[in-house]
């Protein structure tokens, strides 16, 4: 396995898509180096637009471009793409169901030393409550490539959440099963199922290996699409397991855990444990230290499983 940043995969995939389709337009809020849309800009300069530090305006322009038949990718940090520009995303993009792909980087506490002001832990919640919005959280760079290709083909507004740091690859580059709305079962076990998204999928896989050595095999699922959630898979998991653990680098309020809970409470009641940010802001620190403080490491998953097995 190698460590690759999701945003690197994003920039490279955008460049490939834009080179083949001149109706693909990319907007960025003066963060082209950080979001890696600079890679696409170098390949297709006439299809890239730097909108300055004005995310609300960027979303309005993206809506206008999409209304003219283009597929528009709008990028910034997650805090600003979903927070600062929320009203424009809601009213100008989602309400008329325009073909805008909001691709945000630097999400979650693994932004690290930038601290609470830049650590968006509410973005999944904000985006999934908007009607017509599809929400995708890939687990590694290769899944990001597949996700960008999928949202490009998808007709309608999408939100794709990516982190800042390089992360371990868990998929083979040329073999990533990715269908919007369908989770991937990566390991099959019994009694406990861990449903993760983003960086927590790798932590769940690490936990699987540690638990296997102790004679406990768990099921691990990459729930890369938060909306529409894979209801059928969640129901199947609840019927085959005693406990479901949801793991996300996001607030436990309104994110993956909430989406899974909504399915379980309606269709297949099952004990659920939510791993995530427990209704608090982040803070400045290294990504590793913050993940440890918020109990989002594989060791924390192992402990929860042992208590439940």
Structural commentary:
With 309 residues, the chain is an alpha/beta fold. It is globular, with a radius of gyration of 19 Å. The mean pLDDT is 97. The longest helix is centred in the N-terminal third of the chain and has 15 residues, at 6-20. The two termini are 29 Å apart. The chain has 13 helices and 14 strands.
Low-confidence stretches: none
Work out the helix count: 13
**Biggest pleated-sheet summary:** 7 strands, mixed
**Shape summary:** globular
Mean pLDDT: 97
Q: What is the first-to-last residue Cα distance?
A: 29 Å
Helix residue percentage: 40-55%
**What is the topology, as strand order, of the major beta sheet?**
3-2-4-5-7-6-12
Structural class label: alpha/beta
What is the number of strand segments? Answer: 14
Would you list the SSEs in sequence order as H and E?
EHEHHEHEHHEHEHEEEEHEEHEHEHH
Instruction: Estimate what percentage of residues fall within beta strands.
Output: 15-25%
Computed over alpha carbons, the radius of gyration is: 19 Å
């Amino acid at each position: 396995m190698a460590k690759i940043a999701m945003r690197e995969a994003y920039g490279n995939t955008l460049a490939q898509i834009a080179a083949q389709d001149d109706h693909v337009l990319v907007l960025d809020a003066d963060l082209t180096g950080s979001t890696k849309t600079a890679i696409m800009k170098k390949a297709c300069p006439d299809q890239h637009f730097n909108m300055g530090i004005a995310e609300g305006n960027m979303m309005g322009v993206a809506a206008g471009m999409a209304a003219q038949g283009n597929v528009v990718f709008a990028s910034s940090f997650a805090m600003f793409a979903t927070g600062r520009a929320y009203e424009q995303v809601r009213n100008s993009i989602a309400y008329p169901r325009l073909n805008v792909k909001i691709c945000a980087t630097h999400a979650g506490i693994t932004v690290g030393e930038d601290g609470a002001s830049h650590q968006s832990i509410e973005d999944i919640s904000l985006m999934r409550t908007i009607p017509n919005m599809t929400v995708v959280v890939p687990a590694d760079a290769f899944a990001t490539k597949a996700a960008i290709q999928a949202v490009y083909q998808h007709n309608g507004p999408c939100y794709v959440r990516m982190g800042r740091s390089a992360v371990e690859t868990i998929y083979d580059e040329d073999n990533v099963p990715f269908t919007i709305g369908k989770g991937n079962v990566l390991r099959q076990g019994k009694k406990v199922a861990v449903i993760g998204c983003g960086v927590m999928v790798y932590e769940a896989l690490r936990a699987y290996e540690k638990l296997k050595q102790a004679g406990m095999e768990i099921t691990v699922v990459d729930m890369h699409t938060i909306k529409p959630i894979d209801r059928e898979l969640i129901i199947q998991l609840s019927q085959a397991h005693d406990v479901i653990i949801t793991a996300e680098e996001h607030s436990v309020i309104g994110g993956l855990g909430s989406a899974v809970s909504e399915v379980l409470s309606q269709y297949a009641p099952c004990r659920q444990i939510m791993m995530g940010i427990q209704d608090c802001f982040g803070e400045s620190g290294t990504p590793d230290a913050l993940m440890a403080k918020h109990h989002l490491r594989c060791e924390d998953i192992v402990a929860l499983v042992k208590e439940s097995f």
